[in-house]
Design brief:
5-stranded antiparallel β-sheet; transcription regulation; Tscrpt_reg_LuxR_C; 3 domains; 19% strand; 332 residues; Beta-Lactamase; WH-like_DNA-bd_sf; Arc Repressor Mutant, subunit A; alpha+beta
C-alpha cells in the first residue's frame, strides 16, 4: 500500500492548492484507485449547487459542462448525497436506467466515462464538496477495496478541502490536447491562450495575436455569450466566482474553413443528419421517426456531436449547424 502512504502523507501537508492541481498527488490517487480520471467540486450551500470543479486526466471542459448544466440533471448525486460512505454509481442507479438518461447520453458517454465512485465530504454535518474517481466505460467497476480506501481517506480529503482558497489555474484550464481556448480571470487582468490556439493563430495570415485578443476582450466586456468573426466564432463560458478569481471565463474558438462556414470536425454522416434536424427544432423522438433509427441511438449521436463540436447544449449545437438544412431521410 505504498501509494496509500504517499497519498495520506501528501494530504496531511499544509498545501492550499486544490487537490487535483497537485500533479504528483493526483497520479498517486490514480494509481491507488486504479482509476482513469479524477474529479472534485466544492458545494455552495447558499445556492445549492456545486462550484469550482476540476478534473484530472480529462479535458477541463468536462468540469465546466458539469457546473454549467449537467449537475442539474445528474440522476446519481442526489442519491449519493444522503450517504456518508463512498458509494459507487450502480449502488444507487441501475446501468439500464443510467444509460437512458440525458446525463449519460449527453455527458458521461461522450467523455468516455461510465463507472464512478463518489465520496461526499462533510464538516460539522454539512456537505463541503465531493471527490470522484472514474473509470473508462470499457473498464471494470469499482469494488469493496476502492470503496474502503476512499471512505478511509475522507478525514484527510475533508481537511484538504477546508484549507483550499478559490484559485483555478488558467494554464490547467486550457491545457486539454487540441483545445482552442482562452481562459481569463474575472477582472480580465489575467489572460492565457491554449497551446493549440497559439499555433492556430500563427497559421492565420490575416489575424495577429493582438487583434485576436482585442476581439475576445471586446466580446467579454460586451457580456455576450457568442460572437462571429470572419475567421472564427467565439463561445463564452461564464462562472459565478469572486472578482479576484482566476479562470472565471473560458472562451472556446470554432475556426471557419474557407467559405464553408464553421468547421464541424469529425462528424459522421449520421451525426451531421442528426445535428441538422436538431437545428430544425425536432425532438429526439421526432428525429428517431424521421431517420428510422432507435431513440437511444439518436441520443448517442446527439451526445457525440455535442462533444465533437464543443457545444454545451442543443441550442449551441443548432447554432453550429447554421441555417436549417433540407431534411433527408436515411430511407431515401
Amino acid at each position: 500500500m505504498k501509494d496509500l502512504a504517499h497519498v495520506a502523507h501528501a494530504l496531511a501537508q499544509p498545501d492550499q492548492r486544490p487537490i487535483l492541481a497537485r500533479r504528483e498527488l493526483s497520479e498517486r490517487l490514480i494509481s491507488l484507485f486504479r482509476a482513469d480520471f479524477l474529479g472534485q467540486t466544492q458545494w455552495n450551500p447558499e445556492k445549492g449547487v456545486f462550484e469550482k470543479p476540476l478534473c484530472y486526466n480529462r479535458d477541463q471542459r468536462m468540469s465546466w459542462e458539469f457546473e454549467a448544466y449537467y449537475q442539474h440533471c445528474d440522476p446519481i448525486s442526489k442519491h449519493i448525497r444522503t450517504r456518508r460512505e463512498a458509494t459507487s454509481t450502480y449502488e444507487v442507479i441501475s446501468r439500464r436506467r443510467l444509460e437512458r438518461s440525458e446525463y449519460y447520453c449527453d455527458f458521461l458517454q461522450p467523455h468516455g466515462v461510465s463507472h464512478g465512485l463518489d465520496q461526499y465530504l462533510f464538516e460539522d454535518g454539512r456537505i463541503i464538496g465531493d471527490f470522484r474517481v472514474w473509470r473508462k466505460s470499457a473498464s471494470f467497476e469499482f469494488g469493496r477495496r476502492e470503496k474502503h480506501l476512499l471512505s478511509a481517506l475522507h478525514p484527510m480529503l475533508k481537511n484538504a478541502y477546508s484549507t483550499m482558497p478559490y484559485g483555478d489555474d488558467l494554464e490547467q484550464a486550457v491545457s486539454g490536447h487540441g483545445l482552442l481556448a482562452v481562459a481569463m480571470s474575472a477582472d480580465l487582468q489575467r489572460y492565457i491562450c491554449s497551446p493549440a490556439l497559439i499555433d492556430w493563430i500563427a497559421h492565420q495570415n490575416d489575424l495577429s495575436e493582438s487583434a485576436f485578443k482585442n476581439a475576445v476582450l471586446a466580446t467579454v466586456r460586451g457580456k455576450k455569450n457568442t460572437a462571429s468573426f470572419p475567421r472564427f466564432e467565439l463561445r463564452i463560458g461564464w462562472r459565478n466566482v469572486p472578482v479576484h478569481s482566476d479562470c472565471a471565463i473560458l472562451c472556446t474558438v470554432i475556426p471557419r474553413s474557407g467559405n464553408e462556414g464553421l468547421r464541424q470536425p469529425g462528424l459522421t454522416m449520421r451525426e451531421e443528419q442528426v445535428t441538422a434536424l436538431v437545428a430544425e427544432g425536432l425532438t429526439d423522438r421526432e428525429i428517431s421517426n424521421e431517420l428510422g433509427i432507435a431513440f437511444w441511438t439518436v441520443r448517442t449521436h446527439v451526445g457525440n456531436s455535442l462533444r465533437k463540436l464543443g457545444a454545451r447544449n442543443r441550442t449551441e449545437l443548432a447554432r453550429h449547424a447554421g441555417r436549417p438544412r433540407q431534411r433527408k431521410s436515411a430511407r431515401d
